[in-house]
Write a structure and sequence with these properties.
Helix content is 36%, strand content 40%. The chain is built from 3 helices and 7 strands. The longest helix has 21 residues.
């Protein structure tokens, strides 16, 4: 399954048929392989201890792929993740903190970490409270390195 990417190029070619000039439109698009993204997320969640879920979201808040707990609404989670990263980046800019690496929400039941995967995607990772943060951040960096080329 493929989903349209962010950029499109239109080319108009002319063909002559029965003394008539007819335009032909061809379109080239960057494609995102959703099944590949889903597989990467599934392997990340199942292969990393204390990870409860993950979602890959477009910057405008649409879910591209996700492996979330059953009780979580994918669309709502996607919209909040994109908004969180956008707001965090603005806060970082206003507070002159430079580029934001990640946004961490810590609660009594665990963590929600939001990181950018280039300009085309946002990754949300849900981890339980028992997770070792250093190992979690390392695994997230590895996942981002796998995901970023797939969405670029």
């Amino acid at each position: 399954m493929f989903m349209d990417g962010k950029t499109s190029t239109l080319a108009i070619n002319s063909h002559t048929t029965n003394q008539q000039l007819l335009p032909t439109i061809t379109e080239e698009k960057n494609m995102i392989n959703i099944s590949m993204l889903q597989q990467v997320l599934q392997e990340f969640v199942s292969g990393t201890s204390n990870i409860q879920g993950a979602a890959l979201v477009s910057p405008d808040g649409l879910a591209l792929a996700s492996v979330l707990p059953a009780e979580m609404d994918e669309d709502r989670t996607a919209a909040m993740s994109a908004a969180m990263l956008s707001l965090g980046e603005r806060i970082g800019s206003e507070l002159v903190r430079g580029t934001i690496d990640r946004i961490v929400v810590e609660g009594e039941k665990g963590y929600g970490i939001v990181v950018s995967c280039g300009s085309d995607a946002v990754l949300l990772v849900l981890a339980n409270a028992a997770v070792k943060q250093g190992l979690l951040f390392l695994e997230i960096k590895r996942a981002v390195a796998q995901i970023t080329p797939l969405v670029a």
